[in-house]
Predict the 3D structure of the following.
Amino acid sequence: MSDLGKDLREELESRFTLRSSGLSAELTDPDGTVKLLIELRDGQRIEAVLLSDGEGRGTACLSSQAGCPAGCVFCKTGSLGFSRNLSSGEIIEQFFYLNSRSAVSNIVIMGMGEPLLNLEELRRALGILFDPRGLGISPRRVTVSTSGIVEGIRDLADKGPPVRLALSLTSAREELRNRLMPIGRENPLPLLKEALLYYQKKTGRRVTLEAVLLGGLNTGKEEAAAMAAFASGLGLIVNLIPWNPVEGLVFEGRPLREPSPAELRNFTAELEGRGLKLSLRYRKGRAIAGACGQLGQIRRQPAPRTGCQGL
Ligand code: SAH
Ligand code: SF4
């Protein structure tokens, strides 16, 4: 900004950071999904994804942490371990990078990391996105997905913002869930259900359950019955996500696999037969390892290094 005096420029530079991250690669899936590899100031790498609706608008999928401490066995990010929380600025910069590719209409906090373990910085970032002096985005257009942190759900219910909330349930059989999602041991299902009821009551927002479907593991009748029991009284939608392959992930010595078409069909029928409303998440971004649970796989294609153009 050469129209500002030199002293003021120096003063601004010493007090503020305009860009804290750099774009190190950009990958585009034939289905239109764009994945950005972003390098943070300290060399940590995160990813952000833009899912396009084909009509020039998109959903931004943002990361909240570098790596993830939750350690879900089916997730690439979980297999990386935890590096650190992202700052509010680092969360917002992802939005700006994506928004410069195509207009973002919705935001999902479903990238790398567990958002409710970084709630203060996430809250600051969302505050700026929602503020009319900031981006003026409506909280209705934002979904936060959590592996199920009881305290975080209650904190979000009490102090806001009133975003849409999605719980990654994956299994409602506690013993299996805890083997798949070790964070469940500290956040038992009965307490999670109470926290979801509390969230719905406080915010008036229906929550969503997400279930990653793993072939041979969580698509049977018992699972459907347990899921329906967990969902009863909550009045919600269950979002089924067939597992997106991640090379090298094994569960108790056996490789994970996608559900077969028959497993998917039968499980869907079992859930519908129990009165549950379902949606199926389309596997966008698989060709660039940009679909749910695949973030953190290194598949690079060179791109020029630029700053954060939106800031
Ligand atoms: N940490 C948060 C948000 C990021 S993960 C959470 O777990 O909810 C976003 C979604 O991707 C979650 O519902 C998670 O269960 C799902 N997921 C993780 N690994 C996956 C995989 N390999 N295939 C499909 N979905 C996956
Ligand atoms: Fe973390 Fe979510 Fe992956 Fe689990 S599924 S390891 S909580 S990013």
Remarks:
- The chain is about 30% helix and 25% strand.
- The longest strand covers residues 45-52.
- The chain has one domain: 19-288.
